[in-house]
Amino acid sequence: MVSSQNLNNHVLALLERCIHVNHLRQLQAFLITLGHAQTHFYAFKLLRFCTLSLSNLSYARFIFDHLESPNVHLYTAMITAYASHSDHASALLLYRNMVRRPPPRSRPNQFIYPHVLKSCTQAVGLESVRMVHSQVLKSGFGQHPVVQTSLLDAYLRFSSDVGSARFLFDEMTERNVVSWTAMISGYMRLGQIGNAVLLFEEMPDRDVPSWNAVIAGYTQNGLFTEAISLFRRMIFVEEGAQGRKNMPNQVTVVCSLSACGHTGMLQLGKWIHGYVYRNGLVLSSFVSNALVDMYGKCGSLKEARKVFDRTLERSSTSWNSMINCFALHGQSQNAISVFEEMMASGSDVEPDEVTFIGLLNACTHGGLVEKGRLYFEMMTQNYGIEPEIEHYGCLVDLLGRAGQFEEAMEVVKGMRIEPDEVIWGSLLNGCKIHGRIDLAEFAAKKLIDMDPNNGGYGIMLANIYGELGKWDEVRKVRKVLKKQNAYKTPGCSWIEIDNQVHQFYSIDKTHPRTEEIYDILESLISLY
Fold first, then answer.
1. Which of 86, 361, 395, 415 is positioned for an S-S bond with 327, CB 3.0–4.6 A?
2. How far is CA 9 from the centre of its chain?
3. Residue 279: what pLDDT?
4. Closest of 343, 337, 336, 340 to residue 372, by C-alpha
5. Do 216 and 258 contact (CB within 8 A), yes or no?
6. 3-class DSSP state of 458
7. Which residues of the chain fall below pLDDT 70?
């Protein structure tokens, strides 16, 4: 007779040697012959191995379904597996079966609720979160920090119920750094920047994810200067702290590099690149892609290419970053060459929708109409990628710049999605280049219909009427603009000096050195 301990060790050793579901079946058959078909310990080990090592959820569910009375650990393992593999409907159905099972039954615990709540936000909606919340309170797990934080995050996924999330947060008896960060991330995700920052400043203790939540939130909401300022503050605070436990990690670096790219802060971007090496951060493809993107947006294409060439494991994001860098700066042939290099690399990487946006952009800048048509056809027919609004925008822009308006209008009419401002704006630009005033008038009217308060569109239409000699129409448009108090987005430019970005808007006199700037401009003008 094999002792229980020896059998446990033997089963675990056999599990380590399993590399295929057939091996697992043999082990399961062996356990059944020993009378352990319903032993929860072995069923749990088989099920976990099946989900984690083999990623075979269907066979894991087969094991689960043949148990007469699965315990809470088995339910947790199966629900966790479904939630981790984004099969949220199956996770919720299994949870429902669990709570509806007649006594004696396993009851949900604090480890099940976080996964169920995650699935609620992904597959159902707010009402399901509220239902699970009531079950949490009835089952007595309402005061567990991990459950409270999961509830907090679930409510914050729905902009309509941020109040419930804040109420939960304020009522928490034991707030840890995770719950603080969840609340801050939720505010940032909903665009409530002020509330997020106030909460961040109130935090009694911060860790790297809490800093990252605000830096990433600033970046995602377009507040790039603020993201960079907080990154600098993080480094300053942590370098002066004992133990330096909260030094920037890869996520911090990637978010900060994104902010540098959007603001054109090349010198700071280079400093961050050096920081990565000086502090021994792993130069993963995650960081490499961010560096390529930053150098590309800042116009330093040689540096972008150097980083790209040193990236050993190139994902589709790596290739896309390099293609987009060249496309952004009008180097169409170089962008196409990178794509051809990608196709000839022999790797498993295939072009995706982002790849074709880069290629179509490159064709637009280079006036490569035939190539653009070819890539659009390749995307839809060879790779089965459904065109998004960005793809249509690039194609319409390409055809409009080439003066091929009939084909451009055919593309617009054949779109499966409603044309947006980018589509009509691209067509309008093409019309202005080639003097197609009639079609320009049509496109400008479409733009005004979409955003009546955008004064820029009204001014364009008034200018078109002026070119046609329709002065009565010009007066009508200007009268409407005045009546609606329409706005016009001012032109903006910026320059980086000593790692600081100075931003200027049209007719802007808010800069602290405005007088000095205008004096120098006047002295330069007087030279001519």
1. 361
2. 44
3. 84
4. 336
5. no
6. helix
7. 1-3, 159-160, 238-244, 484-492, 494, 496, 498-501, 503, 505-508, 528
3-class secondary-structure state, position 440: helix
Evaluate if pTM is beyond 0.85. Answer: no
| Best CA proximity match to 107, nearest among 70, 80, 147, 134 | 70
For the record, the structure tokens of 210 come out as 């809490």
Contact 474, 465 (CB under 8 A): yes
Mapped onto helix, strand or coil, the DSSP state of residue 307 is: helix
Using CA atoms, how far residue 166 sits from 1, 94, 170, 182, in Å, is 59, 30, 6, 11
CB 382 within 8 A of CB 398: no
pLDDT by residue (tens digit) across 429-484? Answer: 888 888 888 888 888 888 888 887 777 777 877 887 787 788 888 787 787 777 76
Nearest 5°: the CA angle 318, 323, 328 is 125
Q: Using one digit for the tens of pLDDT, what is the confidence trace for 57-83?
A: 999 999 999 998 899 999 999 999 999
Query: Bridge-partner residues for 493, per DSSP?
Result: 504
Element (H, E) at 218: helix 208-220
Compute CA distances 267 → 52, 80, 179, whole Å. Answer: 44, 45, 36
Residue 151: Cβ within 10 Å count: 26
